Amino acid sequence: MGETQGLGGPSTKVINEKPNIQSTAEEAEEEWDEEYEESGLMPFAIIVLILAVAVLAIELFTKMGAGG
To answer: CA 26, CA 24: separation in Å to the nearest integer?
Structure first.
């Protein structure tokens, strides 16, 4: 059988730099914003919000007109 390296053997690779966790979180948020701005969901969300407010206003006016 050929030689195999054990799991407890000395490591030959040394990592010199520490990962920057904060920058990756900021980059992920920027990528998320860019992805959803390009997909056109923001105008759709605004239209749905306006329709929901209109339905709420109609409900309030009909209840007030009926006497509560």
So the answer is: 5
Which pLDDT band, with edges at 50, 70 and 90, does 26 fall under?
confident
Query: Cβ neighbours of residue 42 under 8 Å, at least 6 residues apart?
Result: 36
Dihedral Cα 7, 11, 15, 21, nearest 10 deg: 20
Q: Does residue 43 contact residue 49 with C-beta atoms inside 8 Å? A: no
Predicted structure pTM score: 0.41
Q: Token pair for residue 9? A: 């053997």
By CB neighbour count within 10 A (0-12 exposed, 13-18 middle, 19+ buried), where does 7 fall? exposed
